[in-house]
Sequence to fold (100 residues):
Amino acid sequence: MFKEMGLSLGEIRELLTRRWTTAELREVFRERRSALLRRMQEDSGRLAWIDARLPRHPGLFLAGNAYRGVALNDCTEQGELLAQEVHRFIVNSFSSPPPA
Fold:
């Protein structure tokens, strides 16, 4: 992550050992939140594109923090929903008669 941001080891060390004021920390978190919200908006178009094509690939299920939400509770919620989809897929796959 730090390499992607173009930071050297010295710069990283300075960031990690610096004594931050409350105002500075608020600004850092405000910037990170704003960047995350922008990324979520950009990703929503990509996810819609992927979701529109998923039905063409029965049995393919996508999950993970790179797909929807980065927080643990987001991943847990998405995991539960995906488990229900997988269950429905398996039940429907075995409940219909084999093709003639």
Q: What stands out?
A: The chain has a mean pLDDT of 80. The chain is about 65% helix and 0% strand. Residues 22-53 form the longest helix (32 residues). Residues 54 and 60 are 7 Å apart (CA to CA).
